[in-house]
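Please review this one:
***
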Amino acid sequence: MKFRKILMLSLLCLLVMNMQCNEDDNVVVPCGLEVVIDAVAYQAAESHAIDSAIINDDCLALIVSGSGCDASTWLMSLIDSGNVAESFPNQRYLKLTLHNNEDCLAVFNKEENFDLTALRIEGTNEVLLNIEGLEESILYSY
């Protein structure tokens, strides 16, 4: 009887240990807001100046400044024109919009992250992002 309990406990432990995650498992975590790909929205959008931009893997972090009370209600969208310039590397055209309804005079910075995976182009591993309001283009490699 004691041997049977030890055997059952050992089997239970092996079963639990077998259910642990492997380090090799790829867990995809979205980095932020999705990029909107819409030619009509791109044409209608008014772009906002960008203070800085950094790409980390598939994430684009954009930092903007603006007047307001605390920047917590600001809404940002990154809109792609849907057009791809077939050059080397291929190029895409984007605008950042900022919706800010705050009436305070203080100046704040806000960082927003955007997931760039929707901007990938099949058959290549990089694309040059031309973001209106940003002085230089950014190379997105994937």
